[in-house]
Structures are given as structure tokens and as C-alpha cells.
Amino acid sequence: MTDPFHDPRFFSDPYSTYDRLRSASPVQKIPTGSRGHHAYLVTGHAEARLAFADPRLSKDTARFFADRPSRRNIHPAVSRNMLASDPPHHTRQRAVAAPMFTTGRIVEMRPYISGVVDRLLDGWTPGAEVDLVEELAVPLPVTVICELLGVPESDRAMVSRWSNDLFDAGDPDVIDAASHAIGDYMTHLVEAARETPGDGLLHALLQRSEAGLLAQDEVTSLAVLLLVAGHETTTHFIGNSVLALLQHPSSFARLQQDPELIAGCLDELLRFDSPVGIATFRFSTEGLRLGGVDIPAGFPVLIAPGAANRDPAAFPEPQRLDLDRNAGGHLAFGHGIHRCLGAPLARAEAEIALRAIVTRFPGMHLAIAPEDLAWRHTRLMRGLKSLPVVLR
Ligand code: HEM
């Protein structure tokens, strides 16, 4: 078998590859890259849920690479963070960050999010063609997370570019450089917040650090994690959701008639075309058996929410967008102790953006044929490079 993610067609249609792999076995050993490395890929829903919650699968990337020489040079504030750690380090950091992202906290942010959406859409005129990714799906999450972290407006485009480079599985040197740019930038921003009083998120994290709950470098790495984790993912949630609705006009029409339905459809939209195709790195610390397959100690395990959410054993007729479906069991936000911290924020942003689109541009349609859409070439993310639409 060759690396299944090497084929460029995978990015425009990952689902036929996922289906083929899952039908063969919900867990299987696959080659990754060209240097003879292997990983175990989890494509079944039940198996993915188990894997996300299995303490024998470690997220501690530094531990995995401790005895494996790597030529990579990722800034430590990017490579070592809460998402790349196990209990008890993870538990402590998560307890500090969690109260800042509760559904209640996010409710308070809704007016701000609506204001950003309105400002972005105010420039859109009926009859015009716009790139919905560039003009809404990218700037909305960047603006919101940068506002939370206190990143000045003039720096946001630059920060967004670094984050983009970090995820585009291209040239390792470019990724390493972007990690240093973001790591250094956030180190300075945290220093500046320490010098000036304020009530933003960084100040709240610094207070927890002074109380001994977070190490100084954890403040920076948590801030970097929030910046990058909340950014591309939400972009693709919005882009993929709008595309799904444009390709299912009766569903789009239903939401126009009753925008109150949008909040209840977000899970199905997340399931149908999940922004995170394959979750972040984890590895087996001891041998385990999953989906009838023995995974020896010391192997990377790739859990694919994109595949699990199309598993017919969990969701009948998974390839059908069905706004009435109970899709609550989807794994788009992961599961277990690392389940997405920003889920309430991502939902609020997508809901407000979709509501604005269906009410302000009810006749919106695709400006190009679906097969001409350009998808990002990263196996972590599933998302569009651009989404040209005509406004009506
Ligand atoms: C639709 C948008 C989003 C999706 C699909 C998504 C998806 C995910 C997934 C799958 C994980 C778990 C990864 C794993 O276990 O390998 C995760 C973790 C995380 N996400 Fe999100 N995310 C989204 C938006 C956000 C936002 C807006 C924020 C923050 C502002 C955020 C912050 C985080 C953090 C901090 C973690 C790590 C949690 C931990 O280690 O305990 N995410 N996300």
C-alpha cells in the first residue's frame, strides 16, 4: 500500500478514500511519507471514539521524539502546548483555560461577533461576485480570536499568514519559520501585556500564572494554541457549511425561511464536511488492540474525524446532508480530555455568519462549477482555498 494521502485527488474528495479504507478495516497500518514510516489510521466511528479517550494513546509529542532524531526546528511555544501534553500537565492547563470559553462566556461575545460579520458583509453588493473564504470565513475567526488575545489590528493579516503557513503541509522550512514568527510574536505580546494593565484574555492568563497555576512559558504556548486552533478550523467550518448549503438548495431555502433552525443544524454541518479531517498527533505508549487490530507500542495513531463522521454504522446514509438528523454524536470537535475547548465559540461564529448570509443574500449561488473548487492540500484540515459566490 502507498501513502493514501499522497494522491492529490484525496484533497478534493477525501470521502471515497476514507470509505475504501474503513470498509477494509476501521483501523489499519498505513505508510506515511516516503521514508518507510508507518502509522495506524482510525476511520471507524466507534473505534475513533474509543481512541480519542484511550489513555494509552499519548499526546506528548516531545516524548515521542525524545529518542528519535528530528531535523525539524519548531518554536517550543508552538510544539509544546496543552494539546501536545498528557495529564497531569494537560489537566492543570485545561482547568485554567476552560472557564474562559464556556457557553456563557461566549454568549457575552455574540454582539461583538455580529458586529464583525455585519461590517464584513456591508461591503457586499447584490450582483457582485465575492470569494466567501477570503472575505468572510478567513477574517471573521481571525478578528475574533485576535480581539480576544489583544493582537492589534495592524498585525492581524501577518499573524493570519503565519498561521496559514503553519498548516499548509508544504516546505518544512517554511513551517518552521512560521512557527518561530508566531512564537516570537506571542512572546513579545505576553511581555507587553505584563507591562500594561488590562482585562483581556492574556491578562487573565498572566494572573493565573502569578497565582502559580501556569508556568510563564505555558501562558505563551496557550495563547499560541488558541490563536492557531481557533482560526483555520472555524474558517473551514464556515466555508464547508456554506458550500454544503449551496449544493443542497432545499436545505438552504429552509434556513432562509426559518433562520432559528440554524443553531440546531450546526452539528449536521460539522458531521457532513468536518473541518478537521485527521486529528492531531498521538502515539501508542504500550501495545493495545483496537477494532480487532493489534497496535504495538511506539506507533503514531491518526484518528480521522472526517472518516468517522461518514461511518454508515454511526450515521445511516452518511453521504446525505440531513438537517433533521440527530448528528450530536459526531467527532468533529474530537472527544475525551482534549475535546475542542473552543467549540462554543466556533458554533457562535458559524451560526451568526450563516444567519447573516441566509437573511441578507437569499439568492446566493456558486460562481463556478463545484468540480473547479480548490481545496487546501493538508490532511489535517479539510477546507477550501476559495469559495467564489454570486450575491443575490
Ligand atoms: C469548527 C471549528 C473547530 C473545530 C472543528 C475544532 C476541532 C478540534 C479538535 C478535533 C480538537 C481535538 C484534537 C485532538 O484531540 O487531536 C480540538 C482541540 C482544541 N481546540 Fe478546537 N476546533 C475548532 C475551533 C476552535 C476554536 C474557535 C478554538 C479557540 C478559540 C479552539 C481551541 C481548541 C483547543 C485549545 C484545543 C485543545 C484542547 C485540549 O488539548 O484540551 N478550537 N479542536
Topology (elements, then pairings):
Blueprint: H1 9-12, H2 14-24, E1 27-32, E2 37-42, H3 45-52, E3 57-58, H4 61-66, H5 76-79, H6 89-97, H7 103-122, E4 129-131, H8 132-137, H9 139-149, H10 156-167, H11 172-195, H12 201-210, H13 216-229, H14 232-246, H15 249-257, H16 262-272, E5 283-284, E6 288-290, E7 293-295, E8 301-303, H17 305-308, H18 343-360, E9 365-366, E10 388-390
Parallel strand pairs: 2-8
Antiparallel strand pairs: 1-2, 3-5, 4-10, 6-7, 9-10
Helix pairs in contact: 7-9, 7-18, 10-11, 11-13, 12-13, 14-16, 14-18
Protoporphyrin IX containing FE (HEM) is lined by residues 82-83, 94, 145, 225-226, 229-230, 233-234, 237, 275-276, 279-280, 305, 332-334, 338, 340-342, 345-346.
Keyword list:
binds protoporphyrin IX containing FE; 392 residues; 3-stranded antiparallel beta sheet; 10 strands; 3-stranded mixed beta sheet; 18 helices; 50% helix; Cytochrome p450; globular; mainly alpha
Could you explain how this protein is built, in words?
It is a single chain. With 392 residues, this protein is mainly α. The protein has a single domain, classed as Cytochrome P450 (Cytochrome p450), CATH 1.10.630. 50% of the residues lie in helices and 8% in strands. It has a 3-stranded mixed sheet. The chain has a 3-stranded antiparallel sheet with strand order 4-10-9. Strands 3-5 form a two-stranded antiparallel ribbon. The longest helix is centred in the middle third of the chain and has 24 residues, at 172-195. The model has no long low-confidence stretch (mean pLDDT 94). Bound molecules: protoporphyrin IX containing FE. Protoporphyrin IX containing FE is lined by residues 82-83, 94, 145, 225-226, 229-230, 233-234, 237, 275-276, 279-280, 305, 332-334, 338, 340-342, 345-346.
